Structure formats: structure tokens, C-alpha cells
Amino acid sequence: MIYTIYAQKDATIYERTESLNTGFDQILELSHQLVGTSSKYNSRILIKFNTSDIEARVNSGKIKSGSASYYLSLRAAEVKEIPQEYEVYAFPLSSSWINGSGRYYNDPITTDGASWKFRTSKSVGTEWNVPPVTSSFEWDEVSDLWVDANALFGVNLSADVTSSYLSADGGGTWWTFAGSECTQSFSFESADIYMNVTSIVKKWITGSGRFDNDGFILKFDDETEQSNETVHSLKFFGTDSNTIYVPRLHAIWDDSVFITGSLTQISDENLVVNVKLKKYYSQDEQAKIRVVANTRYPQKTYTTQSYYTKNYYLPTSSYYEIRDAHTDEIVLPFNTTGSKLSCDSTGNYFNLWMSSFQPERFYRVVVKTETSGGNTVQMFDNNYYFKVIRWST
Fold it and tell me: How many angstroms separate the CA atoms of 160 and 54, rounded?
């Protein structure tokens, strides 16, 4: 299954305007600027997801914690002068931050939330302070001071807090414990981010619980941030963009069960697929969607029932995908782990948690089957629509 949650808050912090807050901006931006011959300025993205729902589902066994993977998804809005090859890094923030209500083009600038220099606001004045000696320290929200982490958590804690900047102090602080560095490499391809952040999310929701979820910080690789090129800019749709392209966090695990009973596998060349959907689903519904397979040209035999009442099952390598009906945007992609069709004595099906979708929109189901080791692929996209609504009907 693929379960989706949406960002709670996000903002871009700009090194060149160190107190500028962009908490209500529609766009998130990773950028690098060279001003003059030596002044280099970068921007980074702060983004937080409320993972308490995922944690509750893991604890209740609804999400398989051992096999689940987590992916951060951001949709690119504009790309300008980026290198042919580059990397984007994600780290877990080590301090809480205030989202604020600013926008990039506000004049005068808004300073009531997180910025390059401040993690709260300019008026409060709490800065992104790297702890002494960049060592094993933890920010204590009660005393508002850096405290020796060994005193809080024991000497087995192996984690540091760090930061980096070129022209202006600040730029966020993040943990650098083992596995905390997540990255995605790009080479002549789409700038959309789909990054495996499993190691970070699992540290937030399972295990010792030493690290609070303060969100992610996204940044270019050091080579790009220190580049002598004039401009690099990657812009992404943010939480406040009022589009379907808002940031997402996907939880992906295999929930499939394949028990065919007395069913017969259908022939590849003679295949018709129908997805049994209701017209509406409430956002809190957990639906079991039936996928019915029939023969296109049934062999004529004497029988007392319709040919089309006989049930078959699809190949074990069969998957589903969910797209936005109006934009064709892929909301839940084909995935060999998370979107496998299940089977029981009645036929194929898949489970769908409707809270993964933005309400009051129509969606479309696409089915794919693979046989012969993936050499034969069939797609079934026959206007299987449903709508997610806010309330039960």
C-alpha cells in the first residue's frame, strides 16, 4: 500500500536576506547566487510533516514498520540554469521553527517566522545556533539552551548537530547521526524530487525516540552551493500553492495477499479488466476495491449462467496507479512493493485509504499487468473514476 500525508508547514530561507520569512509563499526554492566576484548566497527549504498519524498506524500494526519505506515528493514548478548533474540533500532539523506568514515579494519584508538567521522570528531573536564545538548536544526547549546530549540520553548517543553557510551566519541546524543524510542525484532528468527518506522518518517514529520531528531541511550539494556560476534555481510547489502539486510524504509497504483458491488465471491475449468503484468515497474511508478479470471472447459451452459471472485472477505481477482525473497527475504511482494487487477466493482487489487524497476531487484508477518476466505489459485505463468527499454520504 501507499499511504500519503501532506506537509504541515514549509518555508524557504534565503542567505542574502537573512531575516526574510516566506512561510505563506506558494513556492519553495533551492537556489545559488554569485554576486560580484566572491559573494555567494544560497537558499534552503524547511518542511515539516506531522507524522503522528503514521506513528499511530505503525504502532497499531496497520503499517508494517519493518518493511515500510518513506519517500519525500516535491513537484518542480520552475527550473533555471541548474547544472547538468547535481544532488539534493535532506537532513533532519535539530531545532523547532516558526512557519511565519511572509512571502518573498512582500515589501517591506515579513520577519515573523523562520529565516536564514532566525528559527523563530526577528523580534523574538532566537537564532539557528550551532552548539559548542559542534558536538553531541541537544537543544532543550525548556531552558532554551544547548545541553550535553549524553547527560540527557546516555553516552551511547552518537549524533552531532551541524550547519553550514558561506556569507551569512545561520542557514538551519541539523542532526548528523548515522543514516541521517538522505540524497537524490540528478543527471539530465526531471527536477521533481522523489527522495527515499526512510532512515530519517523511522528515527522520528520508532526506536529510542531521541530525535523529535522538527522537519526536514533541503539543500544543494556543497559543490553547487559553493559554485562560481551566477545563478542556479529550483522552484517547487509549496503547501500554500493552492494546487494538487503540494509536498507529500509517502509511506510504502507490501500489504498484498495472494490466495487464488479455485480461481483460474486468465489468458494474456484474452483479457478484459473492470474496476468496481463507488461514485463517492468519504475522506475517512478505508476501501477495498475489486478488480474483476474476464475473457474478452469466452469459449462457447453449454452452461446455465452467464459467461461473465465466472471469476478469474490476474498475474501476480499486477499493479494499480491513481491519477488526478483533471490534470492526469500521478498521485499514487505504480510500485512493485506498494501497489501490488491482492487476490482472494473472489478475485483481485487492493486496499485504499482515502485520507491519502485531497478531498472534493475526482481520481482515476489505472491497472497494469506484467508477464514473461516483465517483457509483456498490458495497461488498462478505461475511465475508472471516483471522487473523494469530505463527509460520508
Answer: 26
Confidence class for position 54, pLDDT limits 50, 70, 90: very high
pLDDT (mean) for 156-161: 54
The candidate with the shortest Cα–Cα distance to 18, out of 172, 145, 162, is: 172
For the entire predicted model, the pTM comes to: 0.88
Q: Which residues touch 45 (CB under 8 Å, ≥6 apart)?
A: 10, 11, 12, 13, 28, 29, 30, 216, 217, 218, 219, 236
Count CB neighbours of 205 within 10 A.
21
- pLDDT over 80 at 136, yes or no: no
Bridge-based pairing state of the strands 264-265 and 312-313: parallel
User: CB of 161 within 8 A of CB of 176?
Assistant: yes
Query: Quick one: average pLDDT of 373-377?
Result: 83
Report the share of the chain in percent with pLDDT over 70.
Answer: 87
Q: What's the Cα-to-Cα distance from 333 to each of 166, 190, 341, 356, rounded to whole Å?
A: 39, 16, 13, 13
* Partners of 293 in the β-ladder: 273
Q: Cα(168)–Cα(116) distance, rounded to whole angstroms?
A: 8
Q: What one-character DSSP code corresponds to residue 299?
A: P
Give the least confident one: 160-164, 298-302, 334-338.
Answer: 298-302
pLDDT for 288 beyond 90: yes
CA distance 201 to 3: 14
The span from the CA of 99 to the CA of 145, in Å, is 21
Please, which residues bridge with residue 231 across strands?
33
User: What three-state secondary structure class fits 332?
Assistant: strand
Sequence-distant (≥ 6) Cβ neighbours of residue 82 within 8 angstroms? 186, 191, 232, 233, 234
DSSP for residue 123? T
Residue in the block written with cell 520552475: 78
Residues 246, 239 contacting (CB under 8 angstroms)? yes
